[in-house]
Sequence to fold (223 residues):
Amino acid sequence: MIRDARMQPFPEMSGIVSECAKGRASIQHVTVDAEAGRTASYVYGEFRAPSPAGTYVTLRITDDIGKPRVMMSDLHYERVTCFEVVERAHGDVLIAGLGLGMILHPILGKQEVRSVTVIEKYSEVVELISPTLPYDPRLTIVNDDIFTWRPPSGSRYDVIWFDIWPDFEVTRLSEMARLHRKFGRYLNRDNANRWMESWHRKETKRLAPKQVPDSSPAVTLNE
Ligand SMILES: C[S@@+](CC[C@H](N)C(=O)[O-])C[C@H]1O[C@@H](n2cnc3c(N)ncnc32)[C@H](O)[C@@H]1O
Fold:
């Protein structure tokens, strides 16, 4: 779902997250002009949601095989692809991937959100980003891997959002399917508005449908 970036609910992250580094994780501020902001939104042959000239924040992580990747930024393409989870968030929310904590600011601003549990694989990301978040007793951040973490017994979530990928390669679809299969049982079946989704899953399926057969079960609601 691509929406008008001017309507986006996210704060200017450069005013919230300073440049810093710890172990495998680092935060940089990047100043882009209009052309760079346009080029940075090039996705599958289209310029989507160009960012206006300005200063943006990037989170870079060296992964388990020693490869440094930009995992997250607040460029406008990232912002528009995170609209939907903010709109859908209510009740008990489970999020995989802390990143810059960008989506947490508007999500914690919603009164209809009862709790937010964030699972983040890298302790350095938790250490760098946690202090930048508003104190909120509804928020719990867990340092763990979403592929191995299990919710506490009896847990049910109204909204589940997986956002752990640095890119939108079609090969990610099988990981998404795995997570949807594992966590579908933790959705609150009594809530007609329950929702579970992975970042950029629908767009990846639509834009590259023939490259990888998708075996994900139909556990995503409200498509
Ligand atoms: C794209 S960022 C998330 C962006 C975030 N939603 C935000 O609002 O800024 C992806 C995050 O997922 C984390 N991550 C990657 N693999 C993970 C895994 N297996 N389990 C939990 N977190 C993971 C990365 O360390 C990174 O912080």
